[in-house]
Amino acid sequence: MPDSKRYLRPEVTTRIRRLELKARRVVEGFLAGMHRSPYFGQSIEFLQHRQYTRGDEIRHIDWKVYARQDRLHIKQYEEETNLRLTLLVDRSASMSYGEGDLNKFDYSASIAACLSYLALRQKDATGLYTFDTAVRATVPAKSNQQQLARILSMLDSVGADGRTDLTRVAKQVAQGIPRRGLVLIISDLLGVDNLMEGLRVLRQRGHDVVLFHVLHDDEMDFQFNGATRFEGLETEDMLNCNPRALREGYLEALNEFLDSTRQACGRLSIEYMQVRTSEPLDAVLAKFLATRQLLPNLKR
């Protein structure tokens, strides 16, 4: 097993372990749990009546309805089921930016590790994909005791490289997820074209989608001084300039980018979390999980 403290820190897991990761939309699974399933079962939440047909179990007949209408009707309930959590972690070259704890990929991997830990504690099936222009590595979704070690090992072996093609990746992932569940994307979104198309692919399959948009303080504030050379991480472009002369225009373009991303998520009913790598991870996750408890449940 890899050094779990790299991405799964005790001070973070201690704070979030009492919280729950819930699905907002109907999910599909087989184990007993806290999430809504479209399958009819025998949970405590009544859904509807339907007319009795030959072969139905007599124990599900609503005899009170029979006494009033002289007709046999069956009670149907909404089954509670396990969540299927699918994590997509961007491993493109721009994710390598930042030193130490502020490195974007390491921060993103820590988000993935902590949410995997939480979901697996709930006995929810959890899987991982890392991607750039295509899916590069996969840990198929399982809920057994060895799954967390598999996910941590995968994250520990990843290096950031290449460009990003979220639309192509979303199509690949959508084909590999057999049932509706929670899909959580962690990316800086830099170099991503057609964001709406990629996200729409997952929403059209009925998945509950969350986007963690991870950025470094340098990208958010652009506090560079003096003559500077900027080198593209996903291109070969270079720019020598006085960053102070560019700051106002850069921040204006950045805000437009962030606004358009929020709006894209809003149109598709996708939960959007903008995160700085300087933010304490336990506070970010606690806020996300607490907010999720307050959001209304959605049927699709």
H and E string: HEHEEHEEHHEHEHEEHEH
What's the domain count?
2
> Would you identify the regions where 5 or more consecutive residues have pLDDT less than 50?
26-44
Annotation field: number of helices: 9
- Count of beta strands: 10
- Main β-sheet description: 6 strands, mixed
Average of per-residue pLDDT values: 84
Q: Which CATH class of the largest domain?
A: Alpha Beta
* Helix residue percentage: 25-40%
Name of the CATH superfamily of the largest domain: von Willebrand factor, type A domain
What percentage of the residues does DSSP assign to strands (E)? 25-35%
Question: How are the strands of the largest sheet arranged?
Answer: 5-4-3-6-7-10
Q: What is the 3D form?
A: elongated
Second-tier CATH architecture of the largest domain: 3-Layer(aba) Sandwich
Cα(first) to Cα(last) distance is 38 Å
Based on helices, strands and strand pairing, what is the structural class? alpha/beta
Radius of gyration: 23 Å
Q: What name does the CATH topology of the largest domain carry?
A: Rossmann fold
Q: What would a concise description of this structure say?
A:
This protein is of the alpha/beta class and 300 residues long. It contains nine helices and ten strands.
